[in-house]
Amino acid sequence: MILDAALWTSLPVPALLLAPDDTILDPNPAAELFLNLSSKALTGAPVWDRVLIDADLEEAFARARAQSSPLFVNDVDVGSGERPPLQCNIQFAPLQGFSGHMLMLISPREIASRMTQNQTSTKAAKSAIGMAEMLAHEIKNPLAGISGAAQLLSMGLRGEDLELTDLIVEETRRIVKLLEQVEQFGNLTTPVPRAVNIHDVLDRARQSAAVGFGAHMMFVEDYDPSLPRAMADADQLLQVFLNLIKNACEAGSDGGVIRLRTFYEPSLRLRRKDGSQARLPLQIEVVDDGPGLPLEIAGDVFEPFVSGRENGTGLGLALVSKLIGGIGGWTSVESVPGRTVFRVSLPIAPKDAQGDDLEGER
Ligand SMILES: Nc1ncnc2c1ncn2[C@@H]1O[C@H](COP(=O)(O)OP(=O)(O)OP(=O)(O)O)[C@@H](O)[C@H]1O
Ligand SMILES: [Mg+2]
């Protein structure tokens, strides 16, 4: 390719190289991810068939091409057949030295709120967790004293007064539970990644949700049965899926549908800090039809203590992001009212582990 391949693959903005006849010559990985279509499905296809834009810009685009000038279009809804539209800004630029070729960059607005990737918690979040852990530990002792004293007091009380001591005991218990969650967040065990059948883990998560917090929801499985095994820690993965499903259940109304989807996306690569690339071809999505992420926190949901629920601790998604980051995976979210997709992308288990493990279990 004419462009430096590394530059093209690393570009964090969805980008398409367009031929003079408006077909897609080359999509970058960010564009594949954004449009939810593989390079194969995109390359050679007419761009307006693959990228659905709710604005009439073909004419302006033709003019820009004829004049070899750039074109900026702001605030248009961009979708593909595979994904709901998102508001984006689009930039077209002529490719220097290649007459008629255009570069198309799609920048989702509030990119942070639509797709959030959290490999590691930020420094500030880390110190907040450290502080909270220490506090949690320190607060639990006096709380035990308060609760014990209230119980002693309650022995000599009746009626309304008794209700008050019960309230103290009950609320203290709630605080202790919250503190325990904070402590647990700080003390995660190191993962033991091995070849895991994702569908087994998803099934376990779904089953336990369906008899508990998700009893009011409908679950739909949309699995790719040929999906190879993932390299992951099965227990931690279960925790991840349970958290995602629980959030979806809490967001959805009675009878809401939660879709568990798995598929293979060979093009997804993650650049590690050291510059090397990790392939993350296994995709697991938890999709709900609830109201979507609250706008004011949408960009921060993976940060600890960010919650849009009255009784939420805001640790669920921080835990998800921490666990998935710990095994070299990637977590992202896209949310519009009526469709919220949390996606976990995982590395594949090595070939020998695939075979051994399959035989061992069958
Ligand atoms: N599927 C979803 N649909 C809509 N909003 C969501 C969804 N998942 C998460 N959220 C929002 O993101 C917030 C953060 O989620 P997170 O799981 O981190 O914390 P929490 O659910 O509030 O508390 P916890 O999980 O610790 O009990 C939620 O409070 C909710 O506002
Ligand atoms: Mg939660």
What topology emerges from the helices and strands here?
Elements: H1 5-10, E1 15-18, E2 24-27, H2 29-35, H3 39-42, H4 47-50, E3 52-53, H5 58-66, E4 71-80, E5 83-94, E6 102-108, H6 111-114, H7 123-154, H8 159-186, E7 194-196, H9 198-210, E8 218-222, E9 230-232, H10 234-251, E10 257-264, E11 269-271, E12 277-279, E13 282-288, H11 316-326, E14 330-336, E15 339-346, H12 351-361
Parallel strand pairs: 8-10
Antiparallel strand pairs: 1-2, 1-6, 3-4, 4-5, 5-6, 7-9, 10-13, 11-12, 13-15, 14-15
Bound molecules: adenosine-5'-triphosphate and magnesium ion.
Shape assignment: elongated
In helices, the fraction of residues equals: 40-55%
- Secondary-structure-based class equals alpha+beta
Main beta sheet, described?
A: 6 strands, antiparallel
Molecular structure report:
With 362 residues, the chain is α+β, with helices and mostly antiparallel strands. It contains 12 helices and 15 strands. A hairpin with a 5-residue loop joins strand 1 and strand 2. It is elongated. Bound molecules: adenosine-5'-triphosphate and magnesium ion. The site of adenosine-5'-triphosphate (ATP) has 22 residues, from helix 10 and helix 11. The site of magnesium ion (MG) has 5 residues, from helix 10.
